[in-house]
């Protein structure tokens, strides 16, 4: 999923990471993200960005329709943090714990109320003929504490990241200065022909 094809929050190209030859040959393109994560510093409901839509010349409608198309086709985000793939874990319909290295940008509920793909994971995603944009992510980072370990380089090493998991959610934020990322926060359905005036993206980080 290329963020520049969809109207997501983007990072600075000045910080674009260097890809190796194998990634280039296989068509992989790594792009910087706007997420600000510092080792062992938790964050709760941090604002990532706000996207505004005015629909004056049709360009914004195309952006929304493209987002809807991506959600309907179950397009995925693929993240790398500290050179490690970020995983998305969930309990599937066979009651099995499944982890993948991509997570959906959203999901779709059909006109007869049937949830598709990731919409089956939350019983609140049930409004017919609606798209649920995953505009919030809970990022869980597991690490090994190395603050007391001997270091032959005489440099302070706080720890080593060993696993990163992400839990995407759809949240209907009222305003950028009135964020609510609680577990009971209402989801954000976008009806097929609806024209949302804004989409607010947020994230939380737990160590």
UniProtKB/TrEMBL annotation:
<keyword id="KW-0812">Transmembrane</keyword>
<keyword id="KW-1133">Transmembrane helix</keyword>
<dbReference type="InterPro" id="IPR004240">
    <property type="entry name" value="EMP70"/>
</dbReference>
<comment type="similarity">
    <text>Belongs to the nonaspanin (TM9SF) (TC 9.A.2) family.</text>
</comment>
<keyword id="KW-0732">Signal</keyword>
<dbReference type="GO" id="GO:0016020">
    <property type="term" value="C:membrane"/>
</dbReference>
<dbReference type="Pfam" id="PF02990">
    <property type="entry name" value="EMP70"/>
</dbReference>
<keyword id="KW-0472">Membrane</keyword>
<dbReference type="GO" id="GO:0072657">
    <property type="term" value="P:protein localization to membrane"/>
</dbReference>
<protein>
    <recommendedName>
        <fullName>Transmembrane 9 superfamily member</fullName>
    </recommendedName>
</protein>
């Amino acid at each position: 999923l290329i963020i520049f094809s969809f109207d997501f929050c983007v990072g600075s190209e000045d910080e674009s990471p260097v890809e190796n030859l194998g990634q280039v040959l296989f068509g992989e393109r790594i792009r910087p993200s706007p997420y600000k994560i510092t080792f062992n510093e938790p964050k709760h409901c941090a604002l990532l960005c706000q996207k505004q839509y005015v629909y004056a010349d049709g360009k914004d409608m195309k952006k929304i329709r493209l987002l809807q198309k991506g959600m309907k086709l179950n397009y995925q985000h693929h993240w790398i943090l500290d050179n490690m793939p970020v995983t998305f874990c969930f309990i599937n319909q066979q009651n099995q714990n499944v982890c993948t290295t991509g997570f959906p940008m959203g999901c779709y509920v059909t006109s007869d109320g049937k949830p598709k793909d990731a919409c089956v994971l939350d019983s609140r995603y049930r409004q017919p003929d609606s798209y649920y944009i995953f505009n919030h992510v809970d990022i869980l980072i597991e690490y090994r504490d190395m603050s007391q370990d001997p270091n032959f380089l005489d440099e302070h090493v706080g720890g080593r990241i060993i696993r990163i998991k992400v839990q995407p959610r759809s949240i209907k934020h009222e305003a950028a200065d009135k964020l609510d990322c609680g577990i009971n926060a209402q989801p954000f359905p976008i009806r097929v022909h609806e024209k949302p005036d804004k989409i607010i993206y947020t994230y939380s980080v737990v160590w």
